[in-house]
Amino acid sequence: MGAQLNIKDAETIRLARELAEATGQPITQAIRHALERELQRREEEIQETLAKVKEISREFVASIPPEMRGKTSKEWMDAIYDEDGLPK
After folding, report:
1. How many CA atoms lie within 13 A of 39 on its CB side?
2. What pLDDT digit, counting tens, does each position of 1-17 carry?
3. In a domain, 1, yes or no
4. Which of 37, 51, 75, 78 could form a disulfide with 71 if both were Cys (CB 3.0 to 4.6 A apart)?
5. Domain containing 27: what range?
6. CA-CA distance, 37 to 23, in Å (whole number)?
7. 24's torsion region: left (phi>0), alpha (psi -120 to 50) or beta?
8. Residue 7's closest CA among 41, 31, 42?
């Protein structure tokens, strides 16, 4: 016997039947395709977000003054604050 999914929500059942009728597919196939599309859409959103984060990172690194590139956070702090912790 195959795996089963017992849906007890009337609106979900109505939507599944409506989708199956609209696409001419059996309910199981219509649901599977809808779930696959949703998972694909979510994966695409994740990839778009990652691409945006990578672009922001590239822009940030490019904006760092050449003399500060490769320095540790301590070196950064030493460069902008004096021995009393006040801005230089």
Report:
1. 6
2. 678 889 999 999 999 99
3. no
4. 75
5. 10-80
6. 14
7. left
8. 31
How would residue 76 be classed by pLDDT, with cut points 50, 70 and 90? confident
52 vs 21: CA distance, rounded Å: 39
* Residue 52 is assigned to a structural domain of this protein: yes
Count of C-beta atoms within a 10 Å radius of residue 30: 20
Q: Are 29 and 40 in contact (CB under 8 A)?
A: no
- Whether 37 is in a domain gets the answer yes
| Total number of residues shown for the chain | 88
Do residues 88 and 81 touch, judged by C-beta distance below 8 A? yes
Number of domains into which the chain is organized: 1
* Amino acid of residue 4: Q
Mean pLDDT, the chain, integer: 93
Residue 5 forms part of a structural domain: no
3-state secondary structure 22-58: HHCCCHHHHHHHHHHHHHHHHHHHHHHHHHHHHHHHH
